[in-house]
Amino acid sequence: xxxxxxxxxxxxxxxxxxxxxxxxxxxxxxxxxxxxxxxxxxxxxxxxxxxxxxxxxxxxxxxxxxxxxxxxxxxxxxxxxxxxxxxxxxxxxxxxxxxxxxxxxxxxxxxxxxxxxxxxxxxxxxxxxxxxxxxxxxxxxxxxxxxxxxxxxxxxxxxxxxxxxxxxxxxxxxxxxxxxxxxxxxxxxx
Length: 190
Description:
The chain has helices spanning 15-29, 76-82, 102-105, 115-121, 131-138, 144-155, 161-171, 174-188, and strands spanning 2-10, 32-39, 47-55, 68-73, 86-95, 125-129. By secondary structure, the chain is α/β, with parallel strands linked by helices.
């Protein structure tokens, strides 16, 4: 059994931290894990994509080029862009937050309309979560990535919740842990 996850977002949303937490949880379960990242213009708000692959057998490559089991998206358009990489029966877990990409900001493009409707019409499993609001309720809008990790953890029953929480504790500074645990729990409940 090999699990392939693509994490998509915009620079500054915490995709790298998310891949670290997911990879740590899979390691705690005893899986072989490979994590990789591919930056766009991440420091200027551009697309950032990271990959996590884990298996009970040897994983040779960290990059997922097709056949993703799950896409975890921190921004609606980024998730929509990645859907062609999902395998049949795959799952998209995405924040409903929208962030204008650079071409939209500069007036060279328009943010696509009706993305929620397009995702609903696509033949994929899609879970749309207002992760930003849940993060604010947990104590910080910067925890939206951890809200989404909680949502992922609730659906990935091959890794125990205790392993997810241990991975969170090992990846988050102690002064920020309580807020992030609240964010995780709010996502887990979705």
